[in-house]
């Protein structure tokens, strides 16, 4: 497995296993299969409702804790967020059955962002979260957080795939020492990704699937990915991307697919802001 080195020196697998939208009653088996396939980074969130199932699979695996990289996410907290953030962290940690996290992300750029970040900085200093970061932050919000706080986010997990490549934003993040980690790396199959002629032709040349081409493209750009699947054969396929390399021409061909627009929703859309900001998790 190839790793990326975060801004605090922590090494993170460049490909992990995401559990977004996997029902809680299917998550334990899916995570067990992923660990058996060789995944060592697991990505969940309080809002996914499946942290306990992830924790059961980790415990049952018998894999030493120091061989795993576990990420979960803090949901929106009201002001003042310092105390509620710590309680939310402890709740997630208990559900996962762990004594620390490798990466704790602020899931949305809403609510008492500064209070949440101060609390997350404290968790990092205490060693309870080895690295802290954010998700779904646009450039202005990310730079504001970087400029006005002590700890620079190690990761920003955002939508990124061949149809929304975030090239300029990735360069800005690189300048600030923030690692881009992609969610929706396969665009959930939108825009006919798995039958796209450009990606299909590249796959044929290398004897690889479109999904493998997309993940290899991300690896060569230094983008971390967290593909999801409930099929063991697809899990294994998604890890089998380190034995080939895309040419400069192939990378350039994939670059032409970029539309520069989201395929899901815009976190700057007022209606999305209202919806996500109003949503709260049960205690």
- Number of extended strands: 10
Helix/strand order: EEEHEHEHEHEHEHEHHEHHH
Total tally of structural domains = 1
CATH class: Alpha Beta
CATH architecture: Alpha-Beta Barrel
Strand content: 5-15%
What is the residue-mean pLDDT, rounded to a whole number? 96
The 3D shape can be described as globular
The CATH homologous superfamily name equals NADP-dependent oxidoreductase domain
Find the structural class using helix and strand composition. alpha/beta
- Ranges where pLDDT stays below 50 over 5 or more residues in a row are none
Largest sheet: 8 strands, parallel
In the CATH hierarchy, the third-tier topology is known as TIM Barrel
Strand order of the largest sheet: 3-4-5-6-7-8-9-10
N-to-C span: 37 Å
Helix content: 40-55%
Description:
This protein is of the alpha/beta class and 283 residues long. The protein is built from 11 helices and 10 strands.
Blueprint of the fold:
Layout: E1 3-5, E2 11-13, E3 17-18, H1 24-37, E4 41-43, H2 51-61, E5 69-74, H3 82-96, E6 103-106, H4 113-125, E7 132-135, H5 139-147, E8 155-159, H6 167-176, E9 179-183, H7 197-206, H8 210-220, E10 224-225, H9 232-239, H10 248-255, H11 270-278
Parallel strand pairs: 3-4, 4-5, 5-6, 6-7, 7-8, 8-9, 9-10
Antiparallel strand pairs: 1-2
Short description:
This protein has helices at 24-37, 51-61, 82-96, 113-125, 139-147, 167-176, 197-206, 210-220, 232-239, 248-255, 270-278; strands at residues 3-5, 11-13, 17-18, 41-43, 69-74, 103-106, 132-135, 155-159, 179-183, 224-225. The chain is an alpha/beta fold.
């Amino acid at each position: 497995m190839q790793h990326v080195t975060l801004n605090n020196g922590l090494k993170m697998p460049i490909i992990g296993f995401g559990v977004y939208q996997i029902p809680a009653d299917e998550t334990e088996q899916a995570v067990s299969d992923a660990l058996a396939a060789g995944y060592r980074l697991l990505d969940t969130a309080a809002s996914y409702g499946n942290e306990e199932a992830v924790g059961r699979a980790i415990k049952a695996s018998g894999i030493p804790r120091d061989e795993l990289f576990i990420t979960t996410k803090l949901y929106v907290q009201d002001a003042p967020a310092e105390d509620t953030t710590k309680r939310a962290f402890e709740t997630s940690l208990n559900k996962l059955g762990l004594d620390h996290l490798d990466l704790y992300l602020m899931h949305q750029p809403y609510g008492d962002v500064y209070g949440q970040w101060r609390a997350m900085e404290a968790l990092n200093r205490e060693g309870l979260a080895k690295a802290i970061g954010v998700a779904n932050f646009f450039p202005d919000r990310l730079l504001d957080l970087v400029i006005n706080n002590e700890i620079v986010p190690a990761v920003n997990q955002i939508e990124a795939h061949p149809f929304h490549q975030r090239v300029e934003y990735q360069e800005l993040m690189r300048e600030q020492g923030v690692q881009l980690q992609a969610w929706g790396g396969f665009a959930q199959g939108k825009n006919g990704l798995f039958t796209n002629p450009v990606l299909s032709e590249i796959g044929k040349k290398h004897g690889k699937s479109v999904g493998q081409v997309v993940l290899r493209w991300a690896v060569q750009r230094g983008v971390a990915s967290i593909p999801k699947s409930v099929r063991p054969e697809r899990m294994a396929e998604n890890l089998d991307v380190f034995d080939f390399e895309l040419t400069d021409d192939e990378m350039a061909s994939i670059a032409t697919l970029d539309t520069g627009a989201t395929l899901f929703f815009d976190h700057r859309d007022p209606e999305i802001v209202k919806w996500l900001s109003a949503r709260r998790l049960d205690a």
